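Extended Data, panel c. Modelled sequence:
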Amino acid sequence: MDELKRLKKDWKENLKFPKLSKDEIYKLLHKKSSSIVKRIFVFSLIEFGFWTLLSFVIKDNEAQQRFNQYEMDHITLPLMVIGYAFLIYFFFMFYKNYKSISITASSKGLMEQILKTRKTVKHYVIFNLLFLYISIVIGLFIELNNNPDVALRTAEFTASGDYYIFYGIMLATTLLMMALLTAILLGFYYLIYGILLKKLKNNYKELKKIELE
């Protein structure tokens, strides 16, 4: 049980603590919210470090080396730059949200910052998923048009009249892979950010109660 819930339980039972004022409750909620937003910012940096490290680990595997031989830097490099640019933007927004919520001096202002933070995190997750989908589609397109093994299989299916079956299998496999990755990432993001956002939502509800009293 967290600090605020414990205090509220004790107030109701009239045991350990006297009833706190609105200002004291606000200070507790402000402290909790500021700590949560700070953790969101830190976790986003750790996540970035994890994916960056993973990219270095797999860069020397056979599939990646073959992909690099296609010399598609004119496509992959701009895509990478766009991805990093958006990530830097979101890191800045997370940090800005943390600084803003740290200096907020009113319950109304704190509520607004909580909503902004929740919105930023949701946009961050949506961007990561969309960027993943775009990268998969582009990577698949490059592979289909440059991999000699794929070209051979395409010729075999075309000669046998099963051209559409081949691409149907490719499409189904890609969609299945994207669905699986989506499920994994959503679970990953829920464990990292979803639980923190739920706590922020609870803080928002408590602040709203204070405003209505």
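Helices lie at 3-13, 22-58, 62-68, 73-103, 107-146, 148-159, 163-212. This feature is highlighted in the accompanying rendering.
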